[in-house]
Amino acid sequence: MRLEYKYFVGLIMTIGLVNIIAVHRPKHIRVKLNKLIYIIEDFVDHYRAKLRVLDDNEFLELGSKSNNSKCLLADHVNTRSKLAEQYLDSDRQLLQKIFDSCVTNSSFKKVIKSEKNLIELNFDLLSELSETKVSDIKCNAYRFDKKMDVSEEDQQTEIVSHVYSFSTNQIQVTTHGFYYVICQNAAQKFSKIFDQVVTVYPSDMSVLVEERQKFPGPNHSSVHHLPYLSESKATKMNVLIIGMDSVSANHFRRIFPLTFHYLSQLEHNLIFNHFNSLGRNTFPNVLAMLSGLVDTSTNDQLKQDINEYKENNFFDRVPFLWHDYEKNGYVTMFQEDDPDIAIFNYLKKGFAHSPTHLYGRPFWLKYYESRSGPDKCHFGYPTYSTWFDMISGFLAAMKNSSTKSAYFSFNFLTEYTHNYFAVPATMDRDLRTFLSRLDLDDTLLVLFSDHGNRLKFYSYATELGKFEKHSPFLSIRVPTKMRRTRYFDNMKQNTNKLVSFFDLFQTLRQFLFLNKHGTTSGHDQEFTANSIEDRTRRGTSLFEKIAKDRSCDQAYIPADLCPCLRSHELNESNFSSETGFGFEVVKQVLLEHVNSKTSELRSKCKEFKFHKLVQIKKVYLKEKSIYRIVYVLQPGDAWFETKLRFRNKKFEFSGQTIRLSAYNDQPYCVNDPKLKDFCFCH
């Protein structure tokens, strides 16, 4: 037995011994011993999870893939990667810096709390932390909201409608909503010593529903035609969706060992091994998940265009699932933590009206505007902690509401995961703790990511990295009452099938459908996409049986994102022999193709030059094959991927040319999102 395992077994024995001692000691001793037990158990959990991730025998290497007609997937994928571990190790100093900066003044979080119509401040604690006399502290609370102006982009302005001054340690506000609280030192020219954005919920959450009925905004298109659920038949099962940007299924295991271990042991929870992206970025994947629709600017193989539901380029009329849940008596919530690159706002206009009962964008715009201190922190605690608090506050308000309703809550985390490889690891323990405190008895919990990491040093340097780009994480925990139904049995079998965001969309639809018809065998209702008349029949609910040999075509996964394709790598010489074209000719064609995108903007955008070839891959698609070419252009170290097909001694472009590397602020001089990938401004 290795030394590490001896320590591990020793710790388990220590827990048992301390438990025995604790039983026979006075109460105050038992409390201290129980704390010790918790600390040891926490360490054991961490160590056990770490063993699970790093044990070479725990996971199998990726097997060979068949062609697109049959998708034969390996039982597991390999979380181990020497390159990944190298970058995780190199980032440890950065991780420690972020962690240290976020816990330096963590007591600031105890300064303020809000409950129902009260906002309460601990002036004594604030005085101690800010080294300011209590008599010199002056605090005000400002209520703000979204500006309803369809001529502007979604919520780049705010309206201050109420101002409250703290004469005591608490104020009672007359209106629920978002409040900005700021405290200043009157003896130092009213310099800021503390500020925070808080949410005040009504004591009766049905108030949100009534207000929305008075000011409903535009009529929402409905292509789903889900039936209205009568109050007498509704089973009041909630939906809680927690999403993360840029974390593959493998990387989730690497950076969240504690959380992954918890999910693996969570009763009625299932982790999907072959969940696949539909697009390269967040928007097409979340769009498919929430509406069943396709953005044809990113997927030209499927022709249902999101644009037919837009109005003045806003998304208000798009038939998102939260509208169907709302029509059936649910209180709805939507929040994401990074407003600059939000799903429906990045290079888009967003919503003219709040899409859900609680819409978090006003909160986060103000939060980032006022945030001070180290990066990713605000007054001593990390940004993701505020994101967790937003969810917890909403769930607590729903639980304590005088009128009981079910909820649909969609939450998306970006800042800690989007541009970083190892930084998300700092939130592992807190994520595990947050999940463990949820009351999930009557709740469908969906924990997912949109796609894998796209940082070029990893995603394009190894075969595993390329695979992970399109292999996001998915975990679903079903409500307790569904555990002995065929729906749960089917879902369990589907964990090893090829599934996509269209399947997740159909699952969320069927979950609402089951709220009407029931989940017990006595009310067992067959559900298919065709059982509800609409035009979004792509995908199969995960509550239903999915074919074991399902292909990417059957799952509506684009060919260039399919994990089941056979391919092999070529060098320039092999490529020339197969196609009859010298690669120098192809380089020029690729260069002219990219530069043609901005040919009419040459006064603004520089002309690219070919820098280097990264990879040529021949990919076999049914009855044809294509060549996937990855190359780098300058200036800007711009990585691109173009697919070419050769027929009758001619070549043609297959699909779109994709930019693989981030362009950051390089295309600052152009506004058209379709051109930003191809422009480096003068």
TrEMBL record:
<dbReference type="InterPro" id="IPR017850">
    <property type="entry name" value="Alkaline_phosphatase_core_sf"/>
</dbReference>
<dbReference type="Pfam" id="PF02995">
    <property type="entry name" value="DUF229"/>
</dbReference>
<feature type="transmembrane region" description="Helical">
    <location>
        <begin position="7"/>
        <end position="24"/>
    </location>
</feature>
<keyword id="KW-0472">Membrane</keyword>
<dbReference type="InterPro" id="IPR004245">
    <property type="entry name" value="DUF229"/>
</dbReference>
<protein>
    <recommendedName>
        <fullName>DUF229 domain containing</fullName>
    </recommendedName>
</protein>
<dbReference type="GO" id="GO:0005615">
    <property type="term" value="C:extracellular space"/>
</dbReference>
<keyword id="KW-0812">Transmembrane</keyword>
<keyword id="KW-1133">Transmembrane helix</keyword>
